[in-house]
Amino acid sequence: MVFNVEVDAIGMNCPLPILRTKKVLATMQSGEVLKIKATDAGAAHDFPAFAKQTGNELLASTNEGEVLVFYLKRR
Q1: Which residues does residue 15 pair with via DSSP β-bridges, in sequence order?
Q2: Residues 6+ apart with CB under 8 A from 19
Q3: What is the rounded CA–CA span in Å between residue 19 and residue 40?
Q4: CB atoms within 10 A of CB 47
Q5: Which of 36, 3, 11, 2 is nearest to 22 (CA)?
Q6: Residues 6+ apart with CB under 8 A from 25
Q7: Torsion angle of alpha carbons 9, 15, 20, 25, nearest 10°?
Q8: Is the pLDDT of residue 43 over 90?
Q9: Catalytic residues
Q10: Which run of H or of E encompasses 8?
Q11: Burial (CB count within 10 angstroms: exposed 0-12, middle 13-18, buried 19+), residue 11
């Protein structure tokens, strides 16, 4: 998947991955795609809920070993 920006939240515990993602999304243009890499156990629930709450589109989520990867499209 093609993405414009990547957030590395590996090793961070909640709420830091969400806070870092919010900061990056604020700098992005509508339609751009953000790739988020996280290892926090709650990320599987937190990022889909975050996308829904903020009106951004969760395009995909995958596992790369112990790393969870999410792709969000900026609204």
Answers
A1: none
A2: none
A3: 13
A4: 25
A5: 36
A6: 34, 54, 56, 72, 74
A7: 120
A8: yes
A9: 14
A10: strand 5-9
A11: exposed
Structure tokens at 12: 């961070």
Name the amino acid, one letter, at 57. Answer: E
Alpha-carbon span 37 to 7, nearest angstrom: 6
Task: List the structure tokens of 6.
Answer: 């990547």
**Rounded-to-integer distance, Cα 5 and Cα 42, Å:** 22
- What gap in Å lies between CA 44 and CA 22, rounded to an integer? 17
For residue 41, what pLDDT is reported?
87
pLDDT (tens digit per residue) in 51-66: 999 999 999 999 999 9
DSSP string, 27-67: HSPTT-EEEEEE--TTHHHHHHHHHHHHT-EEEEEEEETTE
What pLDDT, on a 0 to 100 scale, did the predictor assign at position 29? 97
